[in-house]
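A quick word before the example. In earlier lectures we treated sequence and structure as two separate objects. From today on, think of them as two lines of the same record. Here is Transposase written that way.
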Amino acid sequence: MLHRNMPTCNLLLSGAIHFSGCLATQTLRMLTLFGLQCISVSSYFRHQRHYTIPVIIQAWQNDQAKNFSDHRAMDGGIVVAGDCRSDSPGHCAKYGSYTLIEDRVNKVVDVQLVQCIIMLGPATLRFLQAFNTTSTLHLHCYVMLQSSEVPNSTWCEIEGLKRSISLLRRQDLHLSTLITDRHRQAFTIKMLNIAKWVREELCPEGTRHYFDVWHIGKSLGKALDTASKDRQCDQLMLWRPATVNHLYWTAASTQDGNPAVMEAKWRSLVNHIQDIHDHDTPAFSSCAPAPLEGDQHDKEWLELGTAQWQQQNWSIITRTFLLKDVRQLSPQHQTFSLEAYHSLILHFAPKHTGFSYLGMYSRLLLAAIHYNNSHRETAQKSDGTEKYCVRYPRFRKGAFVVRPIKEKASYGKQCHAVLSYFDMAHEASVISDGDLYTVFYHYYYCLQVMQRYATSLMEVLRESYTNSPKALQEVGANLSASAPAPIAKTFTQIPKEEAVSLYLAQQSRFNKAN
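And the structure line, produced from the sequence above:
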């Protein structure tokens, strides 16, 4: 038995559930149905609040500090890709997490979690007025009195970026390149225009802002799909792959990111689709590849003045917004690593489940730690050749893609590195024998390696927790005090009896009494 009669397995079970990214309610329900004695859900959340969350945050701070040290040693500043992720689909997200990834080393630099409020619309207020709840006191039960952090989910991205940039400045890290998507949805609100904010705040410091090619190519493909549905423009579908590929080539072939050259290369497509390969622009005077001949040319050239040429030229290629975006295409680094990281977050924090602020933040950090320590090489066959697989994803619409098969995750090397770190820290008297941070940080990396690691950790955890159980409790209390208040706390609470009476008095339009 441990301090205050808590068995060792209780704390280890809570740590295993949290660190592996499992959901407590589902895991504990499964164990109960299997007939195993286990802790209650309330006990898990108590362990999470007092012990596991502080351990995860401390582990991330150690990992982040090491990454900052490595980034300072890199020449020319850091090259980061940034994007925001909402915790739920639609425009009613509770949290928005903004992530920066150093694209050259493919590691998460920073994760910022922003909490937004929920504003109820006029329909809800009309419902309340129907039950004579028109007094100021009752209406304030449902109208937001103050903002938790940002007014709504649209503000999360710009707020998260500002916080990440502030952290980089405090760490004396120069941001040389920032790659994002276009943020076209926020252009109508100047305060939310990320491109405008970066241009005014970061570009004077020497930061270059680029747009990810994939996002622009995706919207371009959708525009071509829409235009090709017209009976007079059915030939545009044959030009769709070539048009999107030309966008990628425009960026990839301009390594210095010269805006004028990229725009000239993109505009050359207007002549190319007419079988004209010489242009009157000095920046790009002729098509680089030789024109296709014979069977290689499987599309008809578009004639000047036809409906198809007008749609391809004026409605798509030469749109003002698209031309501006082409001038900022990223020539080398993209945001596909961020998309992979966002897919990884779904394992630790699925969108169908709601979490508390610290619960969500800790799971985001777990995903970042896992991502930073899970770089794998391509698997090889017995003869030394690399392994590949062929897939037919839905977005390719029948076309195949070839993907390398990665090696299975090796937790042994990571565990050895962590053990070496703690050995050095212990020799320098940085970490004491009774510090539970060491045990859980060790436990997170070593649990999945071999059973003997878990067995040894059980013994170490018993001794460490018995010596200093309150150290983590104090850290957990400080974290809870510094976290934004839950959204429900920002409302004036209506008495439960009054809320129940309003519910019972409600007349349903479907289940009416006979």
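Notice the following. The chain has 19 helices and nine strands. We will return to this example when we discuss secondary structure assignment.
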